Amino acid sequence: MQRFIYYMQIYREYVILAVLIAISVALFPLNDNPQIKQLRAYTIAGLGLLHEPISVVTETVTLRAENERLRRSNIQLADEIYQLREARIENIRLRRKLEFKERSSYDLVAARVVGQSTDPVRNTITLSVGRNQGVREQMPIVSESGLVGRVVLTSENYSIGQVLLNMDMRTSAKVERTRIDGILQWDGSARLRLNNVAKTLDVNEGDVVVTSEYSNIFPPGIFIGIVSRVDIIPGSITKYIQVQPGVDFSRLEEVFVMLYEADEEKVALEELIDRR
Question: What is the pTM of this model?
Fold first, then answer.
Protein backbone atom coordinates (compact mmCIF):
# COMPACT_ATOMS: atom_id res chain seq x y z
CA MET A 1 0.00 0.00 0.00
CA GLN A 2 2.82 2.37 0.86
CA ARG A 3 4.47 1.60 -2.48
CA PHE A 4 1.19 2.48 -4.26
CA ILE A 5 0.99 5.80 -2.42
CA TYR A 6 4.63 6.44 -3.23
CA TYR A 7 4.06 5.92 -6.98
CA MET A 8 0.93 8.02 -6.90
CA GLN A 9 2.91 10.90 -5.41
CA ILE A 10 5.61 10.60 -8.05
CA TYR A 11 3.21 10.37 -11.05
CA ARG A 12 0.33 12.40 -9.63
CA GLU A 13 0.44 14.90 -12.54
CA TYR A 14 0.01 12.09 -15.07
CA VAL A 15 -2.71 10.45 -13.01
CA ILE A 16 -4.62 13.75 -12.71
CA LEU A 17 -4.24 14.34 -16.48
CA ALA A 18 -5.54 10.84 -17.27
CA VAL A 19 -8.53 11.33 -14.97
CA LEU A 20 -9.36 14.71 -16.53
CA ILE A 21 -9.10 13.25 -20.06
CA ALA A 22 -11.39 10.40 -19.08
CA ILE A 23 -13.92 12.88 -17.61
CA SER A 24 -13.70 15.05 -20.76
CA VAL A 25 -14.29 12.11 -23.02
CA ALA A 26 -17.23 11.01 -20.86
CA LEU A 27 -18.79 14.50 -21.03
CA PHE A 28 -18.01 14.97 -24.71
CA PRO A 29 -21.24 13.36 -26.03
CA LEU A 30 -23.36 15.44 -23.63
CA ASN A 31 -22.11 18.83 -24.88
CA ASP A 32 -24.47 20.54 -27.39
CA ASN A 33 -22.05 23.34 -28.34
CA PRO A 34 -21.95 23.72 -32.20
CA GLN A 35 -18.18 23.59 -32.24
CA ILE A 36 -18.24 20.44 -30.14
CA LYS A 37 -20.86 18.94 -32.43
CA GLN A 38 -18.68 19.70 -35.44
CA LEU A 39 -15.63 18.23 -33.72
CA ARG A 40 -17.70 15.18 -32.80
CA ALA A 41 -18.74 14.79 -36.44
CA TYR A 42 -15.11 15.02 -37.60
CA THR A 43 -14.12 12.49 -34.96
CA ILE A 44 -16.82 10.03 -36.05
CA ALA A 45 -15.83 10.51 -39.71
CA GLY A 46 -12.18 9.94 -38.85
CA LEU A 47 -13.02 6.84 -36.89
CA GLY A 48 -15.07 5.64 -39.88
CA LEU A 49 -12.11 6.14 -42.19
CA LEU A 50 -9.84 4.29 -39.79
CA HIS A 51 -12.33 1.46 -39.34
CA GLU A 52 -12.00 0.20 -42.93
CA PRO A 53 -8.20 -0.40 -43.00
CA ILE A 54 -8.33 -1.74 -39.46
CA SER A 55 -11.14 -4.11 -40.44
CA VAL A 56 -9.15 -5.16 -43.55
CA VAL A 57 -6.16 -6.03 -41.39
CA THR A 58 -8.39 -7.86 -38.92
CA GLU A 59 -10.15 -9.77 -41.71
CA THR A 60 -6.79 -10.65 -43.30
CA VAL A 61 -5.52 -12.12 -40.05
CA THR A 62 -8.82 -13.94 -39.54
CA LEU A 63 -8.83 -15.30 -43.11
CA ARG A 64 -5.23 -16.42 -42.79
CA ALA A 65 -6.07 -18.36 -39.63
CA GLU A 66 -9.20 -19.78 -41.29
CA ASN A 67 -7.21 -20.83 -44.38
CA GLU A 68 -4.68 -22.56 -42.17
CA ARG A 69 -7.47 -24.37 -40.33
CA LEU A 70 -9.10 -25.41 -43.63
CA ARG A 71 -5.73 -26.56 -44.99
CA ARG A 72 -5.21 -28.80 -41.97
CA SER A 73 -8.78 -30.05 -42.30
CA ASN A 74 -8.23 -30.86 -46.00
CA ILE A 75 -5.08 -32.81 -45.19
CA GLN A 76 -6.94 -34.79 -42.54
CA LEU A 77 -9.87 -35.46 -44.89
CA ALA A 78 -7.51 -36.53 -47.69
CA ASP A 79 -5.82 -38.93 -45.32
CA GLU A 80 -9.17 -40.32 -44.19
CA ILE A 81 -10.27 -40.77 -47.82
CA TYR A 82 -7.00 -42.57 -48.60
CA GLN A 83 -7.46 -44.85 -45.60
CA LEU A 84 -11.06 -45.61 -46.61
CA ARG A 85 -9.98 -46.33 -50.19
CA GLU A 86 -7.23 -48.64 -48.98
CA ALA A 87 -9.67 -50.38 -46.64
CA ARG A 88 -12.14 -50.84 -49.51
CA ILE A 89 -9.45 -52.26 -51.81
CA GLU A 90 -8.23 -54.53 -49.01
CA ASN A 91 -11.80 -55.66 -48.34
CA ILE A 92 -12.37 -56.51 -52.01
CA ARG A 93 -9.04 -58.35 -52.19
CA LEU A 94 -9.71 -60.36 -49.04
CA ARG A 95 -13.21 -61.22 -50.21
CA ARG A 96 -11.84 -62.56 -53.48
CA LYS A 97 -9.20 -64.57 -51.65
CA LEU A 98 -11.79 -66.00 -49.29
CA GLU A 99 -14.04 -66.98 -52.21
CA PHE A 100 -11.09 -68.55 -54.00
CA LYS A 101 -10.09 -70.50 -50.89
CA GLU A 102 -13.64 -71.76 -50.42
CA ARG A 103 -13.82 -72.90 -54.06
CA SER A 104 -10.52 -74.77 -53.96
CA SER A 105 -10.63 -78.54 -53.59
CA TYR A 106 -7.20 -78.48 -51.91
CA ASP A 107 -6.06 -77.09 -48.57
CA LEU A 108 -4.46 -73.67 -48.94
CA VAL A 109 -2.04 -71.82 -46.68
CA ALA A 110 -2.22 -68.03 -46.96
CA ALA A 111 1.16 -66.30 -47.31
CA ARG A 112 2.45 -62.77 -47.67
CA VAL A 113 5.14 -61.95 -50.22
CA VAL A 114 7.92 -60.54 -48.01
CA GLY A 115 10.75 -60.51 -50.55
CA GLN A 116 11.48 -60.63 -54.25
CA SER A 117 14.65 -61.37 -56.19
CA THR A 118 16.22 -58.79 -58.49
CA ASP A 119 17.50 -61.37 -60.98
CA PRO A 120 15.80 -60.48 -64.28
CA VAL A 121 15.81 -64.07 -65.61
CA ARG A 122 15.37 -66.16 -62.46
CA ASN A 123 12.54 -64.46 -60.62
CA THR A 124 11.75 -65.75 -57.14
CA ILE A 125 9.64 -64.55 -54.22
CA THR A 126 10.04 -65.03 -50.48
CA LEU A 127 6.94 -66.12 -48.59
CA SER A 128 6.00 -65.71 -44.93
CA VAL A 129 5.26 -69.44 -44.42
CA GLY A 130 7.49 -72.51 -44.15
CA ARG A 131 7.71 -76.04 -42.82
CA ASN A 132 5.98 -75.12 -39.55
CA GLN A 133 2.90 -74.23 -41.59
CA GLY A 134 3.02 -77.45 -43.60
CA VAL A 135 4.77 -76.04 -46.67
CA ARG A 136 7.07 -78.39 -48.58
CA GLU A 137 9.24 -78.07 -51.67
CA GLN A 138 7.52 -78.45 -55.05
CA MET A 139 4.13 -77.39 -53.67
CA PRO A 140 2.17 -75.09 -56.01
CA ILE A 141 1.85 -71.36 -55.33
CA VAL A 142 -1.41 -69.83 -56.53
CA SER A 143 -3.51 -66.69 -56.20
CA GLU A 144 -7.10 -65.84 -57.00
CA SER A 145 -5.81 -64.70 -60.43
CA GLY A 146 -4.18 -68.02 -61.30
CA LEU A 147 -0.96 -70.01 -61.09
CA VAL A 148 2.03 -68.18 -59.58
CA GLY A 149 4.75 -70.85 -59.42
CA ARG A 150 6.14 -73.47 -57.05
CA VAL A 151 8.03 -73.70 -53.77
CA VAL A 152 11.70 -74.52 -54.31
CA LEU A 153 13.20 -73.96 -50.84
CA THR A 154 11.82 -73.94 -47.30
CA SER A 155 12.89 -73.05 -43.77
CA GLU A 156 10.88 -73.27 -40.57
CA ASN A 157 8.83 -70.12 -41.18
CA TYR A 158 9.78 -68.92 -44.66
CA SER A 159 9.99 -70.33 -48.15
CA ILE A 160 11.30 -69.38 -51.59
CA GLY A 161 8.97 -69.60 -54.57
CA GLN A 162 9.97 -69.88 -58.21
CA VAL A 163 7.43 -67.96 -60.31
CA LEU A 164 6.36 -68.67 -63.88
CA LEU A 165 8.46 -65.76 -65.14
CA ASN A 166 11.66 -67.75 -64.63
CA MET A 167 13.93 -69.24 -67.29
CA ASP A 168 14.22 -72.48 -65.27
CA MET A 169 10.45 -72.89 -64.93
CA ARG A 170 8.64 -75.32 -67.24
CA THR A 171 5.35 -77.11 -66.77
CA SER A 172 2.80 -79.11 -68.72
CA ALA A 173 -0.24 -77.07 -69.75
CA LYS A 174 -3.20 -77.45 -72.04
CA VAL A 175 -5.76 -75.41 -73.94
CA GLU A 176 -9.00 -75.81 -72.03
CA ARG A 177 -11.29 -75.66 -75.07
CA THR A 178 -9.57 -78.25 -77.28
CA ARG A 179 -7.59 -80.19 -74.60
CA ILE A 180 -4.39 -79.70 -76.61
CA ASP A 181 -1.25 -80.10 -74.48
CA GLY A 182 2.08 -78.31 -74.60
CA ILE A 183 5.02 -77.23 -72.47
CA LEU A 184 4.70 -73.80 -70.88
CA GLN A 185 7.77 -71.64 -70.32
CA TRP A 186 8.71 -67.99 -70.01
CA ASP A 187 9.59 -66.18 -73.22
CA GLY A 188 11.65 -63.48 -71.48
CA SER A 189 8.94 -60.80 -71.59
CA ALA A 190 5.84 -60.32 -69.46
CA ARG A 191 4.24 -63.29 -71.25
CA LEU A 192 4.58 -67.05 -71.45
CA ARG A 193 4.93 -69.37 -74.40
CA LEU A 194 3.18 -72.70 -75.04
CA ASN A 195 5.63 -74.92 -76.94
CA ASN A 196 5.41 -78.26 -78.74
CA VAL A 197 1.98 -77.62 -80.28
CA ALA A 198 1.74 -78.82 -83.88
CA LYS A 199 0.68 -76.18 -86.39
CA THR A 200 -2.24 -78.35 -87.51
CA LEU A 201 -3.85 -78.28 -84.06
CA ASP A 202 -6.73 -75.98 -83.09
CA VAL A 203 -5.51 -73.12 -80.88
CA ASN A 204 -6.92 -69.59 -81.16
CA GLU A 205 -6.40 -66.23 -79.52
CA GLY A 206 -8.60 -65.94 -76.43
CA ASP A 207 -8.34 -69.63 -75.51
CA VAL A 208 -7.91 -70.38 -71.81
CA VAL A 209 -4.72 -72.21 -70.76
CA VAL A 210 -4.69 -74.34 -67.59
CA THR A 211 -2.37 -76.86 -65.96
CA SER A 212 -2.48 -80.36 -67.43
CA GLU A 213 -2.80 -83.84 -65.96
CA TYR A 214 0.72 -84.59 -67.15
CA SER A 215 2.37 -82.22 -64.66
CA ASN A 216 4.35 -83.78 -61.83
CA ILE A 217 4.09 -80.57 -59.77
CA PHE A 218 0.65 -79.03 -60.28
CA PRO A 219 -2.80 -80.58 -60.12
CA PRO A 220 -4.81 -80.25 -63.35
CA GLY A 221 -7.15 -77.36 -64.10
CA ILE A 222 -5.36 -74.43 -62.44
CA PHE A 223 -5.88 -71.29 -64.52
CA ILE A 224 -2.67 -69.98 -66.08
CA GLY A 225 -3.68 -67.37 -68.62
CA ILE A 226 -5.18 -66.49 -72.00
CA VAL A 227 -3.71 -67.13 -75.46
CA SER A 228 -2.78 -63.67 -76.73
CA ARG A 229 -1.06 -64.55 -80.00
CA VAL A 230 -0.88 -67.49 -82.42
CA ASP A 231 1.57 -67.49 -85.34
CA ILE A 232 2.59 -70.01 -87.95
CA ILE A 233 6.37 -70.02 -88.33
CA PRO A 234 7.52 -70.82 -91.90
CA GLY A 235 9.50 -74.05 -92.01
CA SER A 236 8.41 -75.08 -88.49
CA ILE A 237 6.06 -77.92 -87.61
CA THR A 238 4.87 -76.19 -84.45
CA LYS A 239 2.93 -73.02 -83.74
CA TYR A 240 4.20 -69.96 -81.91
CA ILE A 241 1.67 -69.53 -79.08
CA GLN A 242 1.96 -66.63 -76.64
CA VAL A 243 0.06 -66.70 -73.35
CA GLN A 244 -0.81 -63.69 -71.21
CA PRO A 245 -0.63 -64.88 -67.57
CA GLY A 246 -3.58 -64.15 -65.32
CA VAL A 247 -1.29 -63.10 -62.46
CA ASP A 248 0.26 -59.63 -62.42
CA PHE A 249 3.66 -60.57 -61.00
CA SER A 250 4.65 -56.94 -60.44
CA ARG A 251 1.86 -56.53 -57.86
CA LEU A 252 2.00 -59.75 -55.87
CA GLU A 253 1.31 -59.12 -52.19
CA GLU A 254 -0.53 -62.18 -50.92
CA VAL A 255 -0.62 -65.72 -52.32
CA PHE A 256 -1.60 -69.23 -51.28
CA VAL A 257 0.57 -72.31 -51.03
CA MET A 258 -1.45 -75.31 -52.15
CA LEU A 259 -0.85 -78.29 -49.86
CA TYR A 260 -0.59 -80.64 -52.81
CA GLU A 261 2.12 -83.20 -53.47
CA ALA A 262 2.39 -85.24 -56.65
CA ASP A 263 1.99 -89.04 -56.58
CA GLU A 264 5.48 -90.26 -55.67
CA GLU A 265 4.95 -93.61 -57.38
CA LYS A 266 3.99 -91.93 -60.66
CA VAL A 267 6.91 -89.51 -60.48
CA ALA A 268 9.40 -92.28 -59.68
CA LEU A 269 8.13 -94.42 -62.56
CA GLU A 270 8.37 -91.58 -65.08
CA GLU A 271 11.87 -90.69 -63.87
CA LEU A 272 12.86 -94.31 -64.29
CA ILE A 273 11.72 -94.44 -67.92
CA ASP A 274 13.49 -91.12 -68.60
CA ARG A 275 16.81 -92.60 -67.48
CA ARG A 276 16.54 -95.54 -69.89
Answer: 0.65
